[in-house]
Amino acid sequence: MNKFWNDYPALIEELNGVKSIIKRNIKSRETILEESILPMIESGGKMLRPAFLILASKFGEYDSKKISNLAAVIEMLHMATLIHDDIIDDARLRRGCDTIQYKYGKDYAVYIGDFLFCQCFNMLAKYDYDMKDLRNISKVLTKICMGEITQYNLRYGKNASLRNYIRIISGKTAALFAISFYTGANEAKCDESISNSLGKVGYNAGMAFQIIDDILDYSGNTERLGKSALRDLQKGYYTLPLIYALENDKDGRLKRLLDSESLSSVEIDEIMLLVDKYDGINRAKKVADKYTEKAIERIEKLPNCESKEIIRGSVLKLLNRDY
Fold first, then answer.
1. Residue 275 in contact with residue 161, Cβ under 8 Å?
2. Which end of the chain is more exposed for a tag (fewer CB within 10 A), N or C?
């Protein structure tokens, strides 16, 4: 597992239990199915969403089996969306390993993603979960799909704006963070005010997390980070640093580069330099900082307990990454 949770050994143990549940639920007589998913489970992801669900549940009546099963569902939903994203992006690597679509083909990857979605519904039927939570999880899946559809429809700068960007990432990223926090608390029978506050922590943390990821694509080590920016640009996806930079592109230099049919490595380097020069990175940082501050403000208002301290520490660690 990723070292992100190393300061919290008890939580690591619980997350390992979640991984075991996932492994049990991907077993099949089609052995290649299990073999194709296992590397993704073992490749060192942070398991943020199941961790946040578990931590939120400890503000109320914690039921280990019920919550761990739900945490596994949330992680499997996330995995399914990543598999489908890799198909769309034609991605070769995910967490340092060959993607399922690269190794087994796009058709097979679609089936694997669909299989994970189906298993999630089977797992949700094992316990008497609150119907409200089941409806909310369904709504989040719709939001994730709509976020992807909106992003696709706005490719190549069509109506690129802060407003549309926020619409996209609130569905693609923040919604699953929010539901992880909210559902954990609600299933633990927390007061609605606490469940809602935790959901808002998740929403704001998810927004900041995605914006920071998009900033990292345009800053830091070009060799390490530029590939994501290049992939987004080739697909016509304009993220916040680029959207802001285009607002200051008075001579049209940046737009002319973006209009190239095939971007060379020299052109991508120039785009990254212009995004910084035209204040795209700095302005995007300010938006990320705003969401980070909102998340921390919400955390501070939560009842005092060990989970609150872990949530505060992990959110600060997650959202204060080097740009």
1. no
2. C
Residues 6+ apart with CB under 8 A from 2: 44, 45, 46, 47
Tens-place pLDDT, residues 207-231: 999 999 999 888 755 454 445 666 7
Amino acid, res. 165: Y
List CB contacts of 236: < 8 A, sequence separation 6 or more.
Answer: 155, 156, 157
Q: Are 166 and 124 in contact (CB under 8 A)?
A: no
40, 100 Cβ separation under 8 angstroms: yes
More reliable by pLDDT, 321 or 181: 181
Report the distance separating Cα 194 and Cα 250, nearest Å.
Answer: 47
Residue 323, CA atoms < 13 Å, CB-side half-sphere: 20
Q: Where are the beta strands (DSSP E) in 49-129?
A: 93-94, 97-98
For domain 1-129, the CATH architecture is Orthogonal Bundle (1.10)
97 bridge partner residues: 94
